[in-house]
């Protein structure tokens, strides 16, 4: 099992982001496989759509949110081995050239350890703040992947779609990972799962321990991805999976470790990232929790 952890980014931990480098070094030293960020551009006071696309509320824990690119850059410079991922960036909110530049810089600083994970998001207000149409987010994602492909693999580079356009420009600075960093994609809906099957190098599902651990759903969704990948003449085994594990407040580390092992046994998923945003408050507690979790999962 490979286990990774969310960097201090949200809720009380956001106020301790000056210790991001310390957190990254300590968790890497303890044996973590990866470090991760999420993305929350804003949490609306009166959201039309709630957290995860359900209801009309957003957890208060997401109100304070640090910048994911800055945190990944700090972690890249502070570590030597761990993978550095996003689970997920709300990618269609960002212009493709600026997104490519930020991720290229992080990948170069880290020596090719970037796992960029993208999703379309669920907040209309975030799209409103960016001056974008929430209803076109899926189409924007498809074009964004094409634009990133062009910017990362050609020089000069250009892209022209219906929603996105990148003029012909010099693009000599490329990521360390060749031919480009992998596309990891968050997906729950059928349309998003098809995107993983047809375009993704990795799938980013999630669960919450103990309130929502749907192993049957994970297995069923992965079966769809594999079937659609074969239909697209792609090798399903080449599509990686990293499971996000959110932790409900008050959940003991041992219970989380047991859930991770159960998911692994029933689904075969062997890489998880643990987010303690809802479970602990301080950066010190997050580091202690991570070290304990690594030990528990390693002991089996």
From TrEMBL:
<protein>
    <submittedName>
        <fullName>LLM class F420-dependent oxidoreductase</fullName>
    </submittedName>
</protein>
<keyword id="KW-0285">Flavoprotein</keyword>
<dbReference type="GO" id="GO:0046306">
    <property type="term" value="P:alkanesulfonate catabolic process"/>
</dbReference>
<dbReference type="InterPro" id="IPR050172">
    <property type="entry name" value="SsuD_RutA_monooxygenase"/>
</dbReference>
<dbReference type="InterPro" id="IPR011251">
    <property type="entry name" value="Luciferase-like_dom"/>
</dbReference>
<keyword id="KW-0288">FMN</keyword>
<feature type="domain" description="Luciferase-like">
    <location>
        <begin position="1"/>
        <end position="247"/>
    </location>
</feature>
<dbReference type="GO" id="GO:0008726">
    <property type="term" value="F:alkanesulfonate monooxygenase activity"/>
</dbReference>
<keyword id="KW-0560">Oxidoreductase</keyword>
<dbReference type="InterPro" id="IPR019921">
    <property type="entry name" value="Lucif-like_OxRdtase_Rv2161c"/>
</dbReference>
<dbReference type="InterPro" id="IPR036661">
    <property type="entry name" value="Luciferase-like_sf"/>
</dbReference>
<keyword id="KW-0503">Monooxygenase</keyword>
<dbReference type="Pfam" id="PF00296">
    <property type="entry name" value="Bac_luciferase"/>
</dbReference>
């Amino acid at each position: 099992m490979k286990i990774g952890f969310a960097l201090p980014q949200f809720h009380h931990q956001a106020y301790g982001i000056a210790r991001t480098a310390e957190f990254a070094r300590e968790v890497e030293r303890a044996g973590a496989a990866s470090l991760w960020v999420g993305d929350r551009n804003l949490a609306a006071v009166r959201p039309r759509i709630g957290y995860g696309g359900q209801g009309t509320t957003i957890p208060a824990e997401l109100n304070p949110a640090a910048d994911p690119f800055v945190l990944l850059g700090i972690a890249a410079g502070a570590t030597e081995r761990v993978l550095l991922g996003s689970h997920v960036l709300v990618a269609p909110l960002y212009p493709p050239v600026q997104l490519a530049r930020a991720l290229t810089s992080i990948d170069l600083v880290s020596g090719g350890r970037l796992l960029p994970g993208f999703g379309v998001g669920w907040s209309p207000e975030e799209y409103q703040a960016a001056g974008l149409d929430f209803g076109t987010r899926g189409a924007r994602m498809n074009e964004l992947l094409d634009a990133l492909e062009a910017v990362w693999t050609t020089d000069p580079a250009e892209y022209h779609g219906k929603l996105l356009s990148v003029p012909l420009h010099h693009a000599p600075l490329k990521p360390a990972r060749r031919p480009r960093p992998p596309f990891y994609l968050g997906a729950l809906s059928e349309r998003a799962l098809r995107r993983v099957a047809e375009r993704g190098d990795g799938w980013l599902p999630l669960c919450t321990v103990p309130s929502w651990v749907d192993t049957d759903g994970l297995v069923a969704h992965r079966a769809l991805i594999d079937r659609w990948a074969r239909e697209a003449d792609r090798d399903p085994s080449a599509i990686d999976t990293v499971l996000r594990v959110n932790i409900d407040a008050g959940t003991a580390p041992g219970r989380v470790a047991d859930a991770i092992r159960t998911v692994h046994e029933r689904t075969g998923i062997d890489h998880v990232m643990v987010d303690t945003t809802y479970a602990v408050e301080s950066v010190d507690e997050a580091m202690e929790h991570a070290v304990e979790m690594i030990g528990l999962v390693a002991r089996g």
